Amino acid sequence: MQIPAILGRKLGMTQAFIDGKRVPVTVIAAGPCHVTQVKTVESDGYNAVQLGFEDKPERLVLKPEAGHAKKAGVAAKRHYREIRYPADAAPDLELGSEVKVEVFEGVKKLDIIGVSKGKGFAGVMRRWNFGGGRASHGASKAHRRPGGIGRAGSISKGVFKGKKMPGHLGSEQITVRCKLVKIDAEKDLLLVKGPVPGSNGCLVFVRRSKREYGPIEKPEEKSEE
């Protein structure tokens, strides 16, 4: 059972023509990834496969990393990601095998996980989409302020946890569901429609959408007749 997930990098936006219509798409250079470790219930207590993406220069490779990659028969990688399987579905991928964009054949929706762009310190109107204060009578230099924040009983108790306040915006891991428009197997590219998180060149993790298809399930066993 091939794992419907891969690591890649966001390259930028372009356009594709699908059925005579121009569609704005984001290009992701996905893979090829290598299986650097296979975990099973017997050896590790759970089933999983570890993927490695992008070769790491030898001068930067530590001895533990080199030994880990040597077991798989591949070069040491810059990035690793583990994909878990159900307890009753042992991985059938071999150590060192290659995972490419073909794993998404027949898939229409993808979950893309990445770190959003950092926007620094932001007020409540930008961060939480507050409406702001009145712009006419009764608003004295309080047009973009949050207003009353509802102290919890008294000043000594402070503010309720989770209160929407000014603060740091962006630069956090988010998951976005996107539509898979096209697969370019020759160039290892995925063309997707949707708001892919992060800036151009950032690392993203792409998997088959859990909301659309659910988690990885055990493959059906064929009955012998």
Task: Please describe the structure with a list of short key phrases separated by commas or semicolons.
38% strand, 225 residues, mainly beta, four-stranded antiparallel beta sheet, globular, disordered C terminus, 10% helix
Structure report:
With 225 residues, this protein is mainly β. The protein is 10% helix and 38% strand. The protein is built from four helices and twelve strands; from the N terminus they run βββαβαββββαββββα. A hairpin with a 4-residue loop joins strand 10 (173-184) and strand 11. Residues 218-223 have low confidence and may be disordered.
Overview in brief:
The protein is mainly beta and 225 residues long.
Multimerization status: single chain
N-to-C series of helices and strands? EEEHEHEEEEHEEEEH
Could you give the order of strands across the largest sheet?
1-2-11-10-7-12
Q: Mind telling me the C-alpha Rg?
A: 23 Å
Taking the alpha carbons of the first and last residues, their distance comes to 23 Å
State mean pLDDT (0 to 100 scale).
86
Structural class by secondary-structure content:
mainly beta
Question: Overall 3D geometry?
Answer: globular
| Beta strands, count | 12
Percent helix, as a range, is: under 10%
Strand content: 35-45%
Largest sheet geometry? 6 strands, antiparallel, barrel
